[in-house]
Design brief:
The protein has helices at about 5-15, 20-25, 35-45, 90-100, 115-120, 135-150, 165-170, 185-190, 195-200, 210-220, 230-240, 260-270, 285-295, 305-335; strands at about 45-50, 65, 70, 75, 105, 125-130, 155, 225-230, 245, 275-280, 300-305, 350. The chain is of the alpha/beta class. It has one domain: Aldolase class I (TIM Barrel, Alpha-Beta Barrel). The chain is globular. It binds glyoxylic acid (GLV).
């Protein structure tokens, strides 16, 4: 078996195992993929300022998100169509997340229902990632199903009024197989194989701040707003009752040319000012990336591609191992920074690199 010491090892193996279309869809970004590259590059623009002689004999990476205890500040991000990567799809991811002691957000384009996932991983903290369809009846049913299955939050993704141009997918002619189960979308999509842009064209681009209240009351769940990149929208999110915001550019898959999420995190965290929780996603490959995000104001990060690489390579076991690698790397980073828990990380632990 090839050595798997890092997320990068899983990334390489996943590329070897997946079909070109599956890999393009999972790994690719939009346009020139500038933002995709920036998300990763930004982590190298911040360096650590470690403190010494801090008694780091006991270290815990545990924290809470929206009051739910988790063993590490890494929640599995929503990733669509997971049966493309493993026959058990989201159920395998859920079991891997539960084994690692963390939670998972489930895509609207999930290939398993919230009930199936809850049955596969009892006790898992599950969040419902919501896209609002033009047919609001479909969205109402989705929210009702999520609440009934015990989801603890709705993650409303707000950066996708239409899908961006993903040239990698188009070059290889990637299409979603018509027999892929899509419990929250198939009824409105029908059976024809389609590319993701066709499926996303059924989402409602008229969604606005006014809909937040409707979504919160319909699901009876706290709302996490995913896709906030400015202080202005962070302020609006808090005003409209969001329980948390995710500083996210959709993994470099939507508006190419927006900043790396790590670079806008301080602006958003300052604007929120502790009135809601702040999370970050985009480019997480190392425990040190998690530490930098936490130092710059995130309570936790969401990781999408990293666990998906694990899923593609080794199913549940791969997801668990990827999360364990991030856990172990974060533990080491905390220790060497002079911190015994995520809460002790502050902006004083990082600085902009000078070169
Ligand atoms: C789904 O949300 C995607 O980015 O393709």
């Amino acid at each position: 078996m090839s050595v798997r010491l890092s997320v990068a090892d899983y990334e390489r193996l996943a590329e070897e195992r997946l079909e070109p279309g599956q890999w393009a869809y999972l790994a690719g970004g939009s346009g020139d993929e500038w933002t995709l590259r920036e998300n990763s590059a930004a982590f190298a623009r911040w360096t650590f300022r470690p403190r010494v002689l801090c008694d780091v004999s006991e270290i815990s990476t545990a924290t809470t998100v929206l009051g739910t205890p988790i063993e590490l500040p890494v929640v599995v991000a929503p990733v669509a169509y997971q049966q493309l990567y493993h026959p058990d799809g989201e159920c395998a991811t859920a079991r891997g997340a539960a084994a690692a002691g963390t939670g998972m957000a489930v895509s609207t384009f999930s290939t398993r229902s919230h009930e199936e996932i809850a049955a596969a991983a009892p006790g898992l903290a599950q969040w419902c990632k919501l896209y609002v369809f033009q047919d609001r009846g479909v969205t109402r049913e989705h929210l009702a199903g999520a609440a009934a299955a015990g989801c603890r939050a709705v993650v409303l993704t707000v950066d996708t009024p239409r899908l961006a141009q993903r040239e990698r997918d188009l070059r290889v002619g990637f299409e979603i197989p018509s027999d892929l189960p899509l419990p929250y979308a198939r009824a409105t999509i029908g059976d024809a194989p389609q590319n993701p842009a066709d499926q996303f064209a059924l989402l409602d681009p008229s969604v606005s701040w006014r809909d937040l209240e409707w979504i919160a009351s319909e699901g009876g769940l706290p709302v996490v707003l995913k896709g906030v990149l400015t202080a202005e929208d962070a302020e609006m999110a808090v005003e409209h009752g969001a329980a948390a915001v995710v500083v996210s550019n959709h993994g470099g898959r939507q508006l190419d040319g927006v900043s790396a999420t790590l670079d806008v995190l301080p602006e958003v965290a300052d604007a929120v000012g502790g009135r809601a929780e702040v999370y970050l996603d985009g480019g997480i490959r190392r425990g040190t990336d998690v530490a930098k995000a936490l130092a710059l104001g995130a309570r936790a990060v969401l990781a999408g591609r990293a666990p998906a690489f694990g899923l593609a390579v080794a199913g549940e076991e791969g997801v668990r191992h990827v999360l364990e690698l991030l856990h172990d790397e974060l533990t080491l980073a905390l220790c060497l920074l002079g911190c015994t828990s995520p809460d002790e990380l502050t902006r004083a632990h990082v600085q902009r690199a000078t070169t």
